[in-house]
Amino acid sequence: MTPVAERVCITNAQPLALADVPVLSFDAFADELAEQMAQPTAEISALFGVPGGSQSLRVYAVISLASTGALTVMSTDVGDRYPALTPSVTQAHWFERELAEQWGVVPEGHPWLKPIRFHASYRNGHDAWGRAVGDKILPGVMPDGVDYFKVRGEEIHEVAVGPIHAGVIEPGHFRFQCHGEHVFTLEIEHGYQHRGIERRLVGGPDKRTMHYMETLSGDTSVGHATAYCQAVEALAGQEAPIRAQAIRAIALELERLANHTGDLGALAGDIGYLPTLSFCGRIRGDFLNTTALLCGSRFGRGLVRPGGVGFDLDEDRIQQAVDRISAAHRDVTGAVNLLWTSASVLARLENIGTVPLETIQALGLIGMAGRASGRDRDGRRDFPSGYFRFAQVPVAVWHSGDAFARAYVRHLEGQRSCRFILEQLPQLPAGDVRRSLSPMQADSIVVSIVEGWRGEICHVAITDSEGKFAHYKVVDPSFHNWIGLAMSLRDQEISDFPLCNKSFNLSYCGHDL
Amino acid sequence: MFKAIKERLKQGYRTIDFPRSLPVLPDRFRGLPTIDSSKCPDGCQACAEACPTDAITINGDVKLDLGRCLFCTDCQQACPEDAIAYSTDHRLAVRSRDDLVINGKSGLQLAQAIEEKSRRIFGRSLQLRQVCAGGCSACEADINVLGTVIFDLGRFGIHLVASPRHADGLIVTGPLTQNMKLALKKVYAATPAPKFVIAVGACAISGGPFAGHDEQNDGCDRIVPVDMYIPGCPPHPLTILDGILRLLGRIDEKKS
């Protein structure tokens, strides 16, 4: 067991020499992981493999502790087969599936070893399911030896939905085991949106890198762009000017507002309450247009850049933004309050798709979905970086873990984000909005966490001896949370699936990368 | 119910008058790029080198392929002479892939309406099936927003439908990941003829930022025939709406 004195802890956006990351024996790594994860506020923020080390793969772990803001970093080397971590640390489950799929290593004893993105292994000739090089890998089609979870019985039927779904939405595959309307289990398979971004980040940054960051999850452009720029700046040993940090925080909250408003409207739509659907559909556009007022793009593209932001705000523009947000705040409050005062709406939201707090903790759900079940964790408060070190947005938590809670937490967060923006805009710190950056330090590692609108985004960058990316890991909050949607459908009616799905509203492309 | 009516009165009537009049676009909005090659220093390749998707080629003339363009600011920032900039012209939809390559001298050849016979079928009732083939959700969001009250697609008789069987055409986004190739082919086959395809966004036209990746197909026009291309990253909802209405012959240039 690693003595506490030997643990290596960093904070958000604090780089570390790669040589200082302990390389433990596998047993020491597994023990340390289990011990860390026994703490109630611990979360595996990243667990990923990098080719190299003394065997087949070097596995890095970043464990974040919300109670102190500390990030513990450690590593170990594994061969083609190793004892799975998931049986003792359930939060590792999805990460180990990714390790298996990306690098062709087998975590023996993993209870659910199935592909997550349906692509070929990055190590030629090594496949966790024994597929040969050149074998066609079809999305949603399980390799030999594994299959979708099935319930047997005369009256059981299996419902398969997707990749193409009814609405305007990204593709994914949902496999239900039902008895009439009653759902026993839901299994979700992804990979339809896989564009191969992570591999292309190696050797960068190059002229595409910033654009990958803005499109890897397109409704979270500001979140991911901020996480990336924060990582680059940390590795350069610098910070963006304080005025830029404030503008980034405002853009992040605008992104949160736009998405929450849209989701509240869509939730209303899913239960047939059209007034709120109609108003929120428009008001979401008002928030997006405010972002466009700042930088020309409704999704904040072009705004966050390494060294600061790409656009400054003059007094006139600030006043326009304040006026728009004030009006939108009034409108969204009016539109959404209709939901909480309508008994028929509440009846459709309460006790639907409940995920209890113990499940949230065991599986490592973060962000808004976690907070809706009582998990008091928010990257802005717990791992503050950028402007959130100086100005806080109160964290919104609810306890019931149902669709109502996930809707209500969005409402609370929206109210608080509006107030934050209206407070900060008129008092932006003076100064420049962008600085040029020194080259990134070589042979280093940095963890950059930003509370995107779904939850914590975690980027881990490792530089090589030339100060370029040797590896870049992106963990979107959806990577943690998709399993939550699957759990929420257990013992629910299948007709509540769209509502539950919308109450999470997770990113398919943020997961698939 | 009275609360809902009261709220409706407060929220007001918000549908824009488009296409009869144009709403004000943000001043920083990046619409059709403008190129003034008379300002280019000899041998300068700054914008071409800065472009993340190699959308710009300089061979005497400066040519910009809007189908690859991400409407980012990289070329503008790289240019030492302000030769390349963005206008706030939202009209970008074209019928053929070649029409997307501009040189700043002649205007963009905007989409012509489909022929009279098809217009009689689709002109007042058009059902579109959206297919997300690897899109990042920005193009999808800006298509979806057309159904909201500001744009109100329904007033033109245009609807987004749940099944390709109900559709007159497909509106495709995303670079066409390998994992969505079969799904797109099946959706196209399931759509009854006559049908057409609209490719929305840089990804659906050329692969966008992912062009060249093995995991995708550089856009959808090698897999399905495309009748209209709407460039952008993402294109503004007005750009998309303008394109669809142009296809139906419902934009009268003399009036707008």
Could you explain how this protein is built, in words?
The complex is a heterodimer of chains A (513) and B (256). The longest helix of chain A is centred in the middle third of the chain and has 29 residues, at 242-270. Chain A is α+β, with helices and mostly antiparallel strands and 513 residues long. Chain A folds into two domains: 4-79, no CATH class; 197-512, Cytochrome-c3 Hydrogenase, chain B (Orthogonal Bundle). Chain A has helices spanning 26-37, 93-103, 197-201, 209-215, 221-235, 242-270, 274-295, 315-340, 343-349, 357-363, 367-371, 379-382, 403-424, 477-488, 497-504, 508-512; strands at residues 9-10, 16-17, 23-24, 42-51, 57-65, 70-78, 81-83, 106-108, 156-161, 173-179, 182-189, 304-305, 308-309, 444-451, 456-463, 469-475. In chain A, helix 4 runs antiparallel to helix 5, helix 6 packs antiparallel against helix 13 (403-424) and helix 6 (242-270) runs antiparallel to helix 15. With 256 residues, chain B is α/β, with parallel strands linked by helices. Chain B has a domain at 116-247: Rossmann fold (3-Layer(aba) Sandwich), CATH 3.40.50. Chain B is 23% helix and 16% strand. Chain B is built from eight helices and ten strands. Chain B has a five-stranded parallel β-sheet with strand order 7-6-8-9-10, sandwiched between helices. The longest helix of chain B is centred in the last third of the chain and has 11 residues, at 237-247. Chain B is globular and about 65 Å long. Chains A and B meet through helix 4, helix 7 and helix 8 of A and helix 1, strand 6, helix 5 and helix 6 of B.
Strand content of chain A: 15-25%
Superfamily (CATH H level) name of the largest domain in chain A: Cytochrome-c3 Hydrogenase, chain B
Estimate percent helicity of chain A: 25-40%
| Biggest sheet details of chain B | 5 strands, parallel
Segments of chain B where pLDDT lies below 50 for 5+ residues? none
**CATH class term of the domain at 116-247 in chain B:** Alpha Beta
Give the number of domains of chain A.
2
Number of helices of chain B: 8
What is the distance, rounded to the nearest whole angstrom, between the alpha carbons of the first and last residues of chain B? 40 Å
**SS element count, helices of chain A:** 16
**Main sheet overview of chain A:** 5 strands, mixed
What's the order of the H and E elements of chain B? HEHEEHEEHEHEEHEHEH
The gyration radius over C-alpha positions of chain B equals: 19 Å
What fold name stands as the CATH topology of the largest domain in chain A? Cytochrome-c3 Hydrogenase, chain B
CATH architecture of the largest domain in chain A: Orthogonal Bundle
CATH class of the largest domain in chain A: Mainly Alpha
Spatial shape of chain B? globular
Indicate the low-confidence ranges of chain A by residue numbers: none
